[in-house]
């Protein structure tokens, strides 16, 4: 017998915090501005706070949901609202290209579990050719790191890795009371738009290692932080001051530096940023 929605308890292992504040829900929908004919995919629909208004607006919707117990609840709530296509799958392993119709990119949305939000972002960016944009609810601290400019205290590995792949726009802050159960941190909604023309590193593993090496010694000069990977003269050859600190270099500076390095095995995965 299926459990009523009111009896479904959030599960820590799925990182579930269910959005319930109507004002926040409407603000997110306005930010997304969905239109009929667009192919929208929701990651982690939970109990349908965003799913149902999106389905009413669009008439059809794909959702990726790992928790099998939630699926009958969603199906029951969505009955008569439109075509809800539920994919019982782990978003970290899902091939979003399988949802793409010819010449139509996906618009992704979701209240992402905080414990796996960074790995999901990089999993999606590896499939960026299929994606128009993404609107996600994330931990506020993570969003601040995502959008941080060079020279700021929060600028780091995540900022650099994202800057070469997507534009990131913070939209608004959401307090803990908008969720059940309430998380212990504030959340934020962010818009990501994949960059189609940005130049990418020649070797992604080398780039990841170089950026990780630099920011693990962020109090040192870039010459000292990267001395195991590059000579001082190599840094100067790119018109980069070797006396700068790691947080003072742009993402493109790191790309150009990594292209000078001999290929190395990665020491950090983007999902661990």
Radius of gyration: 21 Å
| Class computed from helices, strands and strand pairing | alpha/beta
Strand fraction band? 15-25%
**Total DSSP E strands:** 9
Output mean pLDDT.
90
End-to-end CA span: 42 Å
Please state how the strands of the largest beta sheet are arranged side by side. 4-3-2-5-6-9-7
Using the alpha-carbon principal axes, give the shape.
elongated
Q: Assign a percent range to the helix content.
A: 25-40%
Order of helices and strands: EHEHEHEEHEHHEEEHHHH
Q: In this structure, how is the largest beta sheet organized? A: 7 strands, mixed
Count of helical regions:
10
Low-confidence stretches: 1-6, 10-15
What can you tell me about this protein's structure?
The protein is an alpha/beta fold. Helix content is 30%, strand content 19%. The chain has a seven-stranded mixed β-sheet, with helices on both faces. Strand 2, helix 2 and strand 3 (60-65) form a beta-alpha-beta unit. It is elongated. Mean pLDDT is 90; it is low at 1-6 and 10-15.
What is the strand and helix layout of this fold?
Blueprint: E1 18-19, H1 22-32, E2 39-43, H2 51-58, E3 60-65, H3 71-78, E4 83-88, E5 106-111, H4 117-125, E6 131-139, H5 140-147, H6 157-163, E7 166-174, E8 179-180, E9 187-194, H7 204-215, H8 222-225, H9 232-236, H10 251-260
Parallel strand pairs: 2-3, 2-5, 3-4, 5-6
Antiparallel strand pairs: 1-8, 6-9, 7-9
């Amino acid at each position: 017998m299926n459990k009523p929605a009111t009896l479904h308890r959030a599960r820590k292992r799925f990182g579930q915090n269910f959005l319930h504040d109507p004002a926040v829900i409407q603000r997110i929908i306005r930010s997304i501005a969905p239109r009929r004919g667009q192919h929208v995919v929701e990651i982690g629909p939970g109990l349908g706070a965003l799913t149902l208004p999106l389905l009413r607006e669009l008439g059809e919707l794909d959702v990726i949901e790992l928790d099998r117990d939630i699926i009958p609840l969603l199906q029951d709530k969505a009955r008569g609202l439109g075509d809800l296509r539920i994919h019982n799958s782990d978003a970290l392993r899902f091939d979003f290209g399988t949802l793409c119709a010819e010449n139509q990119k996906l618009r992704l949305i979701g209240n992402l579990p905080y414990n796996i939000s960074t790995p999901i972002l990089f999993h999606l960016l590896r499939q960026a050719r299929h994606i128009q944009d993404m609107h996600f609810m994330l931990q506020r601290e993570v969003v601040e790191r995502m959008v941080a400019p060079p020279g700021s205290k929060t600028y780091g590995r995540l900022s650099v890795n994202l800057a070469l792949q997507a534009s990131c726009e913070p939209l608004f802050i959401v307090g803990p009371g908008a969720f059940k159960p309430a998380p212990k941190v504030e959340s934020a909604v962010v818009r990501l738009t994949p960059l189609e023309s940005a130049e990418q590193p020649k070797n992604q593993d080398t780039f990841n290692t170089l950026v990780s090496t630099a920011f693990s010694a962020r109090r040192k000069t870039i010459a000292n932080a990267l001395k195991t990977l590059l000579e001082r003269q190599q840094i100067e050859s790119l018109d980069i001051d070797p006396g700068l600190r790691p947080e003072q270099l742009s993402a493109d500076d790191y790309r150009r530096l990594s292209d000078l390095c001999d290929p190395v095995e990665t020491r950090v995965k983007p999902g661990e940023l």
